[in-house]
Design a protein that fits this description.
With about 325 residues, this protein is an alpha/beta fold. The protein has eleven helices and 14 strands.
Length: about 325
């Protein structure tokens, strides 16, 4: 079983425009979709489509539209009951694949809610192969919560993946000595935030075929205690670094329909491959194939296995970059 944890879930509304977004202009919407969202929810949705036993743990009031949507999608969940409604997030897709996101902060989770969410995760983690801690933290939850959860989960035998940003990511990295996850999945901006490099520098280096800055940044996290780093780089693919080596996965050229949820799909693909016993390059290949399949779908839809083609993704061993640094 895989447990996904989404402290700040959302209802994701995605609108697609026929042309570029113009600030202050009038736009005609070509299409609109509404999906249950939040990073951990997206991972659970993708894994459920693949037939992987998954439970999504999240806070939500009884009868919230998010829970109704999860039931309709066949996603198993455990909702920690709170009083405030789940937030709404808006994504605007332009015709060239550019996505603009407007995310509400989310409902405040009081001390009792934080305690109940913590207990729900720890109780279910006893039966889990992986626990996935994903997304932003709502008001009322301290930035250290992910680090604290990793430290509490570590003795339980499950493996732990974390995908977050900003303050919670910094707090986690500062706590690697006591709370190092088995997998951390930063994008370029998040990886750069933990180093002295900028996201633009990392992405432009990869675009030039220079993977050394990304490997060096990821290796820095490995040296501090993280066990595996999956750095997703958008159209440039992804880099995987662990104690045994480094690999680059290059996706096929494509114009994305929507990038919403692509990183979450990549994490789901990695976990699915891991459960199947795949080695590191194969896990990376599956991750990028899932991300590509998600980017080809409208809104925040997640791909089913029949839409995922690993043969379109090329994986290169770049361990020499790690050795050179």
């Amino acid at each position: 079983m895989i447990i996904t944890v989404t402290p700040n879930p959302s209802i994701d509304r995605t609108v697609t425009l026929g042309g570029p977004l113009t600030r202050g202009g009038l736009h005609r919407v070509q299409s609109m979709s509404v999906e249950p969202g939040g990073k951990g929810v997206n991972v659970a949705r993708a894994l459920t489509l693949a037939g992987v036993e998954t439970v999504a743990v999240l806070p939500a009031p009884a009868g919230d539209p998010l829970l109704t949507a999860l039931e309709a999608a066949g996603v198993a969940f455990h909702a920690v009951t709170v009083t405030q409604a789940v937030r709404t997030s808006l994504a605007i897709n332009e015709s060239d694949g550019t996505t603009t996101k407007l995310n509400e902060r989310g409902a405040t989770l009081g001390q009792a809610g934080v305690w109940a969410l913590t207990r729900a995760v720890l109780d279910r983690a006893q039966q889990a192969r992986w626990v996935v801690l994903s997304g932003s933290l709502p008001p009322g939850v301290p930035h250290s919560w992910y680090a604290d959860m990793v430290a509490e989960l570590a003795p339980m035998g499950c493996r732990i993946a974390v995908d977050t940003s900003d303050g919670p990511l910094s707090a986690l990295a500062e706590s690697f000595s006591r709370a190092a996850p088995d997998l951390i999945k930063p994008n370029a901006a998040e990886l750069a935030s933990l180093t002295e490099m900028s996201a633009a520098e990392l992405e432009s280096a990869v675009a030039r075929g220079d993977t050394e800055p990304v490997v060096c940044a990821a290796q820095h996290l490995i040296d501090r205690g993280a066990r595996t780093v999956l750095a997703t780089l958008g159209a440039a693919g992804a880099v995987l670094v662990d104690s045994t080596g480094s690999w680059l996965a290059t996706p096929p050229s494509m114009v994305p329909t929507s990038t919403v949820g692509a990183g979450d799909a990549a994490l789901a693909g990695y976990l699915r491959a891991d459960l199947a016993g795949a080695d590191a390059p194969q896990r990376l290949q599956m991750a990028v194939a899932y991300g590509c399949a998600a980017a080809a779908l409208p809104g925040s839809r997640l791909p089913s296995p029949d839409l995922v083609d690993v043969n379109t993704v090329r994986v290169t061993d770049i361990s020499y970059d790690s050795a050179a640094t």
